[in-house]
Amino acid sequence: MLPRSTIGPTLGRALRRGLEDGFRHGAGVGYSGWESYELVDAENAMLAAGIDILPEARRTVVAQTLDVLRRLRQRGPDRTELRDDLDQEIRRIKTEPAEHWMPYLAAREGLLGRPVLDRDQLVAEAEAITVGDVRQAADALWGNLLLSVDPDATADSRLHWNLRAPASRSRPTGRRFKPAGWPVVDGDLTVGPSSAQIETGSAETSASYDDLAVVVAYPDGGRHLVRRDGCQLHIEPACWRNGQQAVEAVDAAVPSALQVLMPPRDPEGIPRSAVTWRHQATYLLKKPAVWCVLLCAAVVVVGLVGGLTLQEIAPRVAVAALASTVIVALNNLRRA
Prior knowledge:
The protein is an alpha+beta fold. It has helices spanning 7-26, 61-74, 79-95, 102-112, 119-127, 131-142, 243-253, 277-285, 288-305, 310-335; strands at residues 2-3, 30-39, 44-53, 175-177, 188-191, 195-199, 204-208, 212-217, 223-227, 232-235, 259-261.
């Protein structure tokens, strides 16, 4: 992503040439490069560039690609190459029949509320582009860079990879929901008036409602909250206790205009908890504290069946509780 300008497409072509020079003409491990420049809105655009490479180039593709962009950030494109590129672009503007592109250009600019430039104005904009302009555009691109690479290429020590979704701007406060498989499955779903968050023992994902691009809504209650940075928060009601109430809280807080209604999902494909009552019983019976409670309860039951009074049972329960405490303490020491 970078601010919309005439310089953006020029930067894209410079990136393509840099990739081709390194992978195709230099190392002989690449094919033809490509670039794409698409408007996001009246002020911003999406620039993409890439190249098809041979398998042996995968381990160095990240480093070499970033080197191309670093050179453009530090020095800009070669002055002669830039002039040749702009001359070719100017010839295209001057010679291509206007009916092939002017109607689309006029309609697009009109919808975006921007003035429609004629052929001479477009040529003047291209002629004014300098090496410094392209360098500044490359610097702006660097701040919003997204890399899509083969897993073999992720070993570049100069990169810091996000292992999880970046945290949302605000930490949600609101109603908390436990997993349907709790306590076998640990975690919390928090749904508040301005954001939602899922937190497990190893990860945390949150989404502020004012930072959502869209909410994918399924008839079964599933909600996928898609943030503007592309990260998603999936709320599946069957995976949470009172999960449908969590979905209702989200629907009440998020503008309905953001919802995209989807057709019904295959029932077999709907996410749900895989924890059964047998799993929960097995989990609890492995806990020393549970056995301690059962031991005390057994002492009470045996005493009552034997005709003892509560006053007579109390000392026995105290002994059982003391023994239970010792068992739990020894177990904790063993784990430590």
